[in-house]
Each structure stands twice: as structure tokens, then as C-alpha cells.
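Shape matters. Shown next:

___
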Amino acid sequence: QVQLVESGGGLVQAGGSLRLSCAASGRTFSRYVMGWFRQDPGKEREFVASINWSGGSTYYADSVKGRFTISRDKAKNMVYLQMNSLKPEDTAVYYCATRAVGSSTYIYWGQGTQVTVSS
């Protein structure tokens, strides 16, 4: 059974940094893409970033390009989201998710971790 467990959220001042972690277990992810999404209450869930588990290619939402970096540690089965220059509009619950390469549907999701950026 696939499990994704996020950690690392918290309260930070604008301009600060946080690193989110996602512990992935339950299968090999060599043919999967790992993604980060976020959702603020009253808003739609938003794609943040993704990384191909095998090749390491990355994609970012325009709103976070240049500020956030997604990475993975194959040996530890971990995915990270380094968030720098945080803004109040980055406040949301952040979710780790995964989909098969070639599919557009993320099928496994974590429980989320809250990130709050104060102005």
C-alpha cells in the first residue's frame, strides 16, 4: 500500500524559508512522478512542482519558479520542497502526490502539511 507522509510545515515570516519533506513507501517509484500541490481554504488545489523519480526532470508553477526547488533522494525514498523567499500568498496546506509516468492523474496523496507565511 502506497503511503505518502508530509512534514516540515509551520509558521514563517515573509521572506523566510521552509523545507517540506515527503516520505514515500509501499512500492518502487522508478516509473512515477512525484508532485507537490497546495490548497488554501476556499480556493482550488494548485500544482506547485513535480519531479520525475528516475530522470530527475522538474517542472514548476510560474508562481514559484525561482523560489522553490523540488528534489528527491532515491536511497531514502524522500521528496523535498525547498521554499525560499516565502510570501503570504504561499500560505496553504501542501500535499505530496504521485502519478505514473504517462498518466495525468495523481492517484496517491499524502495528508498534507500546513504552511503559514505571515506578513
Notes: The chain has a mean pLDDT of 96. The chain is about 0% helix and 55% strand.
